[in-house]
Design brief:
The complex is a heterodimer of chains A (756) and B (345).
Chain A (H helix, E strand, L loop, with lengths): L6 E2 L12 H19 L4 E2 L2 H21 L1 H21 L1 H16 L7 E2 L1 H19 L6 H16 L6 H21 L12 H29 L1 H23 L22 E7 L7 E12 L2 E4 L18 H12 L5 E8 L9 E2 L27 E6 L17 H19 L9 H8 L6 H15 L1 E2 L12 H9 L1 E2 L1 H14 L4 E9 L5 E4 L2 E7 L3 E9 L3 E5 L16 H11 L21 H8 L4 H35 L4 H14 L13 H8 L5 H16 L6 H20 L3 H10 L4
Parallel strand pairs in A: 2-3, 10-11
Antiparallel strand pairs in A: 4-7, 4-14, 5-6, 5-8, 5-12, 7-9, 12-15, 13-14, 15-16
Chain B lengths: L1 H18 L3 H26 L1 E5 L3 E5 L3 E10 L5 E12 L6 E9 L2 E10 L4 E13 L6 E15 L11 H5 L3 E3 L12 E6 L11 H7 L3 E5 L5 E8 L6 H19 L4 E8 L4 E7 L2 H13 L15 E4 L3 E4 L2 E5 L2 H5 L6
Parallel strand pairs in B: 2-8, 12-13, 12-15
Antiparallel strand pairs in B: 1-3, 3-6, 4-5, 4-7, 7-8, 9-12, 10-11, 13-14, 15-16, 16-17
Helix pairs in contact in B: 1-2, 5-6
The chains are: A alpha+beta (756), B alpha+beta (345).
């Protein structure tokens, strides 16, 4: 079989087609987009009035010289290179400091002062202008720059650089326009048919795509701005589905909750049952089952204090200090003898590596001594769980009943309590001050000494500055999660509320620990039999809260999460007293904490306002220039529209039929005040027309009338020649009419009616 | 691949916008999604306004020469077309299997002309059909195709190398070659156009004996209407042949006919057209007419005939490359020697 090797024709002479002007615009979009992104971090600043015009002029010079003379282009490149090296040599210290600042910003968590980076931005402008131009235009390669700019855009929020809308638009414009250009210019020449003006075609295609992009942006902006929460939620819905499916498939959903790692993402409970809790009477308060108490905190992670484990079960050496022993003794002093409950906790997964313990409870009840001597892997399948006696907080004695201790136990208790208080005040008031500058400043600027005042202030701070959400999104890389939650994101769930509250307590010198475990509400229980109420605890009941150490009661839980809907404070602080304190201090629920520091107004803002502020858009400041810009656009667009409309109509007139042409002609005559008493059917119309309009002969007028009559009433169609004569006569009549009109009519005639 | 990358990046943008609550990124993601929808429909719009036609419906070239095919691209839409793929199907007349080739093109608004070329390997009639046009969006992510009905023929002629045929003078007087009738003779049929040196294969009848005797060299008289005679060639089909053999057959016929035209005023050719179910009688008086005759031969379906034609012929040429003087085989050629142009009788 014959082989046909087709060879598309090539240009006979070497094609030296200039780069279209739109290429310069696309180049500028790329360079300016990156430069604006460079300016996005609060710590980076440069003189935009200097850098941006300089970039525009440089890009123009590159484009212009490349089109005019390659020698001039290379001279410009050489001059810029020499200039850059000279600047680096002369101002090496300035450049060094600015580069060091940028590197620190990118790779460290340090909070940096705003620095002027004009010199570095100018250097960057030169590098980017030549680099992007070289790769895109002579190099005809776009993939690398597309991926690079995409990475910049996507990586920016991860490191907490907030790209604003103009940056996003410019970079997208750059990416897509050059993509369109490359799809024309990168074609395999051996398989592409040659047509003149490939670059012009590429430019026009990219321009058409740009217009589509602008429309897409203009459509996306109001849509997203008006329903942003809906779209953000849609992301969480999908992510939640994936997470839950993954957790269920891998068995992660069955893992017990007892850890000190603060989740920097969203929380998607699967509803998997973890525990079965049985009580002998229906509780009236939420039961907090603590599984983990945090000791030291660093970078979103708490270390385990381990002293909640019922160590007395395993160790009986009285010479060793056991915080758990102290807790037992404290419980003995406070418990209400006639209002004690028994609680049994069974781990449904059979994993007993963690023990959960309610507050104000006894030691593990001795079902069988043997039961205590196992760890997770050894638990028998029919193990029914472990039990405690506990008293609800509201039923605790308001005093310590020392009579319950014998003569040897009381001094021991007092000694241990004092020692532990000292220990707790030193151990559980520590926090990483250097990592929490804004929170430290907030506490320092609101000095308080009374525990109740402190608690009220913490609750007020949390409630007025953050809202509860299981989907607050991800914390940017390197950001301190506590500060990000309270001052920037202003939304989170129990872990974030408990984290901030714990740190604030510690900052005020109150011993506090971050606790995770489960919270079982009275509503969760159902009656299993007489004197037996059961609750199946799922991972949705997993919770985090704060516990503070009180001399009289030991560790007590404090609920700080708004959505918990529980009034669990601590013995001695009632809801009424809390409200009173808030009123006294002027901490209305809708108020905000005033700070002198740069943490700004941390009051909760409406969704759109907060999002707009996230975009670095000041709506009030934006409106006047936006209005002016809109006005300018209208001023430019309206004449343009009229001119284009006139052109389109004139073009259509070149092929209009004779009746339309005749109608136009009579209209024109009427507008200039000629032959107003004629409507076209008079017998002497042709004669009068030729007399009125000197450019028209009597014969032509008659031919025109004949054609129009034929078109209106005749059985035979009007031929092309007759149509042409009619159009020609109409055109000349319109020209005549235009010459005999006053200015307003002329404008109307020319631009609105588009008759000439 | 590009579509997948672009789609994944748009989804990733949307996802990260949600995770980091970035409104600009969310708008970006949506703009990309809107743009994707636009790009899906764009090729459908563009293809409606784009068409491709062959400017000339037939082209010719000599074997080994460059065959140029001219195209005109019509874009009646408002938008330019950055990329379109034209599917061409090429085959030699008589072949069943087509060769598919694809070429890319772009078009501004209005009409633009372009061309492509190829070197034909064999003689014959090449049928070129542009049957499909696939139009891409500006980012070449999506495409839409439409059928086309553009068609042209490219005739590939053999290289002009007349076969040197040394015909005995009596051959014209006897069978196979007849005197032309008077009405076909020109008024100046015996007018000498020029005298030239003898070349191998020249007929003895045209030797200028007087001049040759004086100069001791053989000279040949060339007449304005040299030999007012007709030479007949019967083409017969010898069986299934390849394109290469067919090309060799056409080349041999062309050379033979050209050779005969040096001695005869007219070459009459007869063959059996299986498609029409009858004998075709054709004739050519010069090289141009012979090329036209070849095109008609290319188009016809040369087949075996059951009966002999009522046709007086001098030579019979078979598709097996056998040349007969009447029924006496003169020579059997090979395709290779014909295609290399190295043939003599």
């Amino acid at each position: 079989m014959a082989k046909f090797k087709l060879n598309p024709a090539v240009s006979k002479k070497k094609e030296n087609e200039p780069l279209p002007l739109v290429m310069l615009i696309f180049l500028l979009a790329g360079v300016l987009g990156i430069l604006l992104l460079f300016r996005s971090p609060a710590a980076n600043d440069y003189s935009a009035a200097l850098v941006l015009p300089f970039t525009a002029v440089l890009c123009w010079a590159i484009w212009f010289t490349y089109n005019k003379s390659k020698t001039a282009f290379w001279l410009l490149a050489a001059a810029c290179t020499v200039g850059c090296f000279l600047a680096l040599f002369i101002f090496h210290r300035t450049f060094g400091l600015q580069i060091f600042h940028t590197v620190r910003l990118l790779f460290t968590n340090d909070s940096l002062e705003t620095t002027d980076l004009t010199a570095l931005a100018m250097l960057l402008s030169v590098i980017l202008s030549f680099g992007i131009f070289g790769i895109e235009c002579p190099g005809r390669s776009h993939a690398l720059l597309y991926l690079f700019t995409t990475a910049l855009l996507l990586f920016a929020p991860i490191i907490d650089i907030k790209a604003n809308i103009e940056t996003a638009f410019l970079l997208l414009l750059f990416q897509l326009s050059f993509w369109a250009v490359m799809s024309v210019t990168q074609e395999n020449k051996k398989r592409t048919l040659f047509t003149k003006g490939r670059l012009r075609l590429a430019g026009n295609s990219a321009l058409a795509l740009t217009l589509a992009l602008i429309i897409a942006f203009l459509a996306a902006f109001p849509l997203v701005a008006s329903s942003s929460s809906l779209f953000f939620d849609s992301v969480y819905t999908v992510e939640g589905f994936i997470y839950r499916s993954f957790d269920n498939l891998t068995g992660r959903s069955e893992q017990l909750v007892a850890g000190g790692q603060i989740n920097n993402g969203n929380n998607y409970p699967t509803g998997t049952p973890h525990l079965e809790v049985t009580v002998d009477s229906l509780p009236t308060e939420s039961i907090y089952l603590r599984g983990f108490s945090g000791g030291d905190y660093k970078n979103g992670n708490w270390t385990n204090t381990s002293d909640f484990i019922p160590m007395s079960v395993y160790y009986h050496d009285e010479t060793i200090f056991y915080p758990a022993d102290l807790e037992l003794m404290m419980y003995e002093l406070n418990r209400s003898e006639d209002k004690e409950h028994t609680i049994t906790i069974r781990h449904l997964s059979g994993d007993y590596s963690v023990f959960y313990r309610p507050y104000f409870s006894s030691d593990l009840l001795p079902y069988d001594e043997e039961d205590y001597h196992f760890f997770s892997d050894n638990a028998p399948e029919d193990y029914e769980g472990y039990s405690y006696n506990f008293t609800e907080q509201k039923n605790l004695l308001t005093y310590n009943d020392y009579n319950r201790l014998d003569d040897t136990e009381l001094p021991q208790l007092l000694e241990r309590r004092r020692d532990y208080m000292e220990y707790a005040e030193s151990r559980f008031t520590a926090y990483p001050r250097e990592d929490l500058p804004r929170l430290s400043t907030l506490v320092a600027e609101n000095p308080l000494t009374e525990l109740d005042d402190i608690t009220a202030f913490i609750l007020y701070t949390l409630n007025s500055n953050a809202e509860y959400s299981l989907t607050p999104g991800w914390t940017p890389w390197g950001k301190e999660i506590a500060e990000y939650f309270l001052f920037e994101r202003k939304a989170g769930y129990c872990q974030h509320f408990a984290l901030v509250a714990t740190l604030m307590y510690r900052m005020y010198g109150v011993p506090a620990r971050y606790v995770t475990g489960y919270r079982v509400d009275p509503d969760d229980f159902y009656s299993a039999s007489d004197n037996e109420f059961k609750a199946t605890v799922t991972d949705a009941s997993a919770h985090a809260w704060v516990e503070i150490y009180l001399m009289q009661y030991g560790w007590v839980p404090v609920e700080v999460t708004p959505a918990a809907n529980a009034s669990t404070l601590y013995p001695g602080l009632s809801g009424i007293r809390l409200n009173m304190l808030m009123f006294q201090h002027g901490w209305g629920q809708s108020g905000s904490v005033q700070q002198a520091s740069d943490s700004g107004n941390i009051a909760q803002q409406s969704d759109i306002t907060s999002l707009l502020s996230g975009m670095n858009v000041d709506l009030d400041a934006l409106l006047p220039p936006l209005g002016i810009a809109l006005g300018v656009c209208v001023l430019i667009a309206a004449p343009l529209f009229i001119i284009l409309r006139r052109r389109r109509k004139l073009k259509k007139r070149e092929t209009e039929d004779c009746r339309a042409a005749f109608y136009r002609m009579t209209q024109a005559l009427n507008l200039c005040g000629e032959m107003t008493d004629y409507d076209g059917w008079e017998t002497d119309y042709a004669q009068r027309l030729s007399k009125t309009v000197p450019d028209i002969t009597d014969e032509e007028a008659k031919q025109m009338l004949s054609a129009v009559s034929k078109a209106a009433c005749g059985n035979t169609p009007v031929n092309a020649e007759e149509e042409a004569i009619t159009r020609s006569v109409a055109r000349r009549v319109c020209d005549y009419a235009y010459q005999h009109m006053d200015l307003p009519r002329k404008l109307f005639f020319k631009y609105i009616k588009a008759y000439v | 691949m590009s579509r997948i990358v672009f789609g994944l990046l748009a989804v990733l943008t949307y996802y990260l916008a949600g995770m980091y609550l970035s409104l600009p990124l969310m708008i970006l993601g949506f703009a990309e999604l809107f743009l994707l929808v636009f790009l899906i429909f764009l090729p459908r719009y563009l293809k409606k306004h784009l068409s491709v036609e062959f400017i000339k419906k037939s082209e010719t070239a000599e074997l080994g020469g460059e065959m140029r095919c001219h195209l005109v691209i019509h874009n009646t839409g408002k938008l330019p077309v950055s990329r379109a793929r034209l599917r061409l199907k090429l085959k030699y007349a008589g072949e069943t299997k087509e060769v598919t080739r694809r070429l890319y093109l772009g078009a501004e608004k209005g009409d633009s002309e372009t061309e492509f070329s190829f070197r034909a390997e064999y003689c014959g009639l090449i049928q070129i059909k542009a049957d499909k046009l696939r139009v891409y969006d500006y980012m070449s992510l999506y495409s839409s195709s439409k059928p086309l009905d553009a068609y042209m023929e490219a005739a590939v002629f053999p290289v002009s190398s007349p076969l040197a045929i040394d015909l005995p003078a009596e051959a014209f007087d006897n069978t196979g070659v007849s005197e032309l009738t008077a009405d076909k003779m020109g008024e100046n049929n015996d007018e000498i156009r020029q005298i030239r040196e003898y070349r191998t294969g020249d007929s003895n009848r045209h030797v200028h004996w007087n001049l040759s005797a004086k100069t001791d060299k053989l000279w040949i008289k060339e007449y304005q209407k040299d030999t007012d005679l007709t030479a007949g060639i019967l083409l017969s089909c010898g069986g299934e042949i390849t394109t290469q053999q067919q090309s060799a057959f056409y080349s041999l016929f062309f050379s033979l006919a050209l050779g005969l035209l040096q001695s005869a005023a007219l070459v009459k050719v007869c063959w059996y057209d299986g498609g029409k179910g009858g004998y075709i009688f054709d004739e050519a008086a010069n090289a141009e007419q012979l090329q036209e005759l070849l095109v008609r031969l290319y188009r016809s379906n040369l087949s075996k005939a059951d009966n002999a034609p009522a046709f007086e012929y001098l030579f019979r040429l078979t598709t097996d490359l056998e040349l007969y003087d009447k029924e006496k085989q003169i020579r059997r050629f090979t395709a290779e020697e014909i295609l290399t142009g190295n043939i003599t009788l």
